[in-house]
Amino acid sequence: MGAELTAAAVRAAAAEIADPQLAIGLGKFFQARPGGYGEGDEFIGLRVPQQRAIAKRFRGIGSDEVVALLDSPIHEHRLIALFLLRGEFERTLRPKSGPDRDDAARWVELYLDAVRRGRVNNWDLVDSSADSILGDYCRRRDENAVILAHAADADLWRRRVGIIATFAHTKHGDASALLSVAPHVRDDRRDLIQKAFGWMLREVGKRVDEQILLGYLEENAARMGRTALSYAIEHRTPEERAHLRALR
């Protein structure tokens, strides 16, 4: 008999292997302290491979159960929920021609609702879901307005969703999504925005065309934050790095 496909069963599976000592370390790592970017988050102590394994056990779970997990105060419950959501979204695409079908759109709307409600509220949650759900949906539809809207949002996590969502396009050799997002995020000096932007720029140089990256940096390095620039030029030659840093 297969696993009961409920949020309660997922929570029970997570509780069985939770590690309280690991939970303490995760709380520190994800800055759950007062004033940290993850303030108020709760951890039970699961590693990412364990969470992926739990999500695999509960394939086919319904959307209401995913929402219940997303509404949990436990960080690991929400990450498992995002792995489940991603899996169900991807399953809708396999036998069909594209994500214009109602079932795929419903999973994407569920994801966007979770983002709006602040349930995708740490960098690992964003980075595990934004490009594979929102980004891939927009790429397949050739419609990036939702990505741009998130990138232009002042909220830290919604803006990071907009940045990371462009990775879906970059992975398919298209830098246009990131370049359209760049004006909205370049001047944001928050560390988690800087790192995301620099990382996505670096990936454009790696996966699309290094001349697109270098051209952007020649024009914009002087106005970029130090962290974003450092991430973007990580794989450049020492001479290139020195030249681009000198532009600041």
Give the topology string: H per helix, E per strand: HHHHHHHHHHHHHHHH
Number of helices: 16
Q: How many angstroms does the end-to-end distance come to?
A: 62 Å
- The Cα radius of gyration reads 19 Å
Amount of helix: 55-70%
Largest sheet: none
Give average pLDDT, whole number: 95
Q: Show unreliable segments.
A: none
- Beta-strand portion reads under 5%
Coarse structural class: mainly alpha
Q: How many DSSP E strands?
A: 0
Shape: globular
What descriptive keywords fit this protein?
248 residues; mainly alpha; 16 helices; 67% helix; globular; DNA_alkylation; ARM-type_fold; DNA alkylation repair protein
Provide a descriptive summary of the structure in words.
This protein has a domain at 1-123. It has 16 helices and no strands. The chain has helices at 7-16, 20-29, 48-57, 63-70, 75-93, 102-116, 123-127, 130-141, 145-152, 156-165, 167-170, 176-185, 191-207, 210-220, 226-232, 238-246. Helix 5 runs antiparallel to helix 6 (102-116) and helix 8 (130-141) packs across helix 10.
